[in-house]
Amino acid sequence: MADGGGVSEPARRRRRAARPIAVYLFVLALVALVPAFVFSAVLLQRNNEAQERIVETLITGTARSIAQAVDRELNANATTLKVLTTNPALIAGDMATFHDQVSTALAGTGSYVYVLNRALEAMMSTRRPYAPGVQGKSADAVSSGKAFASEGTVVSDLVRGAVSQEYVVNVLQRVEATRLGPVVLGFNRAATQLAPVLLSNRLPDGWNVALLDGAGLIIAASPGAGQTGDRFRLEGAQTVDSSFGWRHETVGDKPSLLVAQRSLLSDWTVVAWAPGDIVARPLADAFWSLLAGGVLLAALVVLVVYWVGLQIGRSVHGLEADARRLGAGQPVEARAFPIAEIETVSTALGDASRRRQAAETEVRFLMRELAHRSKNQMTVIAAMAKQTARGADSVPEFVSSFEKRIFGLARSTDLLLAHGVAGVDLRELLVGQIDPFCPVDGVRVVVDGQSLRLNAQAAQILGMAAHELATNAVKYGAFAREGGRLDVTWQRVEEALAFEWRESGIGVGRAQDNTRRGFGTTVLETMVGRSLGAEVRREVEADMLVWRFVVPLAAIDPAHAGSEAGRPEADK
User: Which of 233, 264, 337, 557 is the S-S candidate for 315 at Cβ 3.0 to 4.6 Å?
Assistant: First the structure.
């Protein structure tokens, strides 16, 4: 059962289930944005993985290139030693001459040459002026011993020089054919001189590189990667082996990505490393950029959705107000809205309002006309009763005649109510009044004329006139005998309607039986003539009866509903 507000329970449930249009717009925005962000994140992740592989390949190749550059440096030093091993002064054991020649050749290079005897004692060193005799023990006994035992070139680890007191590296070569016996020729250079070799190939930002000796000490390193002589702080190992890609290690106390490449000419290793998040950082930066962009985009979408929802909401509320006014019977005018579809609905509401107003106006008009015509009909019915009673010889005859006239009046009223303010079609009115009296042989009746509509007053009056004429035709005229014929015609003549009712074949002298003044004569002359301002003429011939009416068009125009002066008067 409906509550006091007149809203049923299902309607309340539907209302509770309803959501503002902004909610659906937000859902639509989420459906559009969330997959886009997810897809972007997946693409970002895949792009980052591809970038990682590219960076890994780049770092590995760069480390290999640096190791090759170191090997080229060592190979150049070894070549220099091989050239020096053929020096005549060295072969002759003339250390003074050899010292002078090599010092001159290496001047300004930062590189030095020394000669060791079997006891690993320095016989000559270009680091200091030449002096005959032994000049001290070698600070790199291990590499020197390997050199005496090897026929090839030996590269030392990091060594602190006895004379320079700085970290150096040595390249040593045994020389057999000298007057002094087998000696070791050593090429000595500062370890820091190898730093430019490490930096010859630029690494990406955030990456460090160091050259380690066989004991894991730093020979040279990029700025900030460590000092020469420091131990490389690789957790769990003193040295590293070559790798074909990076691996996760702990350097110092930080998780790192590390790439190592061993030298082919020495026990040295080139190590490149970077913090573990160096590769993830671009992804994180891109993610936060994506997130920030997403937040800004979401905020923009929220603002747009809010604005669109506000526009739609205002428009819908405007339609709601118009619909309520329409429901209350108030006039509604079409309004301009920012949304074309809603503006179309507003236009439809305005049209519906105009049609409703017109319909209500017509209904009110018809109601007034009905009340007006009801009063007229009471008068007409009273007149019909009086005239029928005067012409009737018995009560049954009175009842029959009066009933027929009532039915004829009712048919005119039905047509009036059916067509309203549009007016009653004259042909339809005449056919409706004549058909009940028409003989079975329809060819004896002709109703012909141009299309014409009558207002309510004219329809009632001409309907009653047609009824009376048809009644007389049955009693005395064309319908009273075989061979009788009725022709009803009309046409517009200037500003008037020329109407003719012609009965032929009624028999000689029959028309004179229609001369007495009864209700029919009253209707034809009084109501048609006076109420419609018409000219009425009746012509009788030997075998023919003709009624002619000339009615002003203004009196029958549907745009004029008639006036009080047009009410039929009762026969006195």
Answer: 337
Tokens matching residue 175: 């020389």
Per-residue pLDDT at 396? 81
CATH architecture of the domain with range 357-566: 2-Layer Sandwich (3.30)
H or E segment to which residue 466 belongs = helix 456-475
- ∠ CA 292-296-301, nearest 5°, is 140
Q: What is the pLDDT of residues 65-111, one digit of tens each?
A: 999 999 998 999 999 989 998 889 888 888 889 999 999 988 888 89
Give backbone dihedrals phi and psi of 184, rounded to 5 degrees, phi first.
-115, 125
| 110-127 CB burial, b ≥16 within 10 A, e <16 | ebbbbbbbeebebbbbbb
Cβ atoms of 220 and 213 within 8 Å: the answer is: no
Mean pLDDT of the chain: 79
Nearest in space to 224 (alpha carbons), one of 239, 237, 209: 209
Distances (CA, A) of 456 to 130, 151, 413, 555, 561: 148, 139, 8, 10, 6
Between the alpha carbon of residue 14 and those of residues 10, 18, 20, 315, the distances in Å are 6, 6, 13, 22
- Report the b/e string of 450-475 with b at 16+ CB within 10 A: eebbbbbbbbbbbbbbbbbbbbbbbe
**Structure-token match 């990456």, residue found:** 207
Q: How far apart are CA 111 and CA 133, in angstroms?
A: 23
The neighbour count for residue 343, using CB atoms within 10 Å, is: 16
The residues spanned by each domain of the chain are 357-566
Are 247 and 56 in contact by the 8 Å Cβ rule? The answer is: no
**Cα distance between residue 273 and residue 506, in whole Å:** 132
- Could you give the dihedral angle defined by the CA atoms of residues 51, 56, 62 and 65, in that order, rounded to the nearest 10 degrees? -130
Question: Which residues does the chain have with pLDDT short of 70?
Answer: 1-18, 235-240, 283, 365-366, 369-384, 386-388, 390-392, 401, 404-405, 407-421, 439-442, 508-523, 560-572
Residues 435, 467 contacting (CB under 8 angstroms): no
Strands 111-116 and 122-125: antiparallel
Tell me which residue of 124, 132, 110, 108 sits closest to 175, measured CA to CA. 124
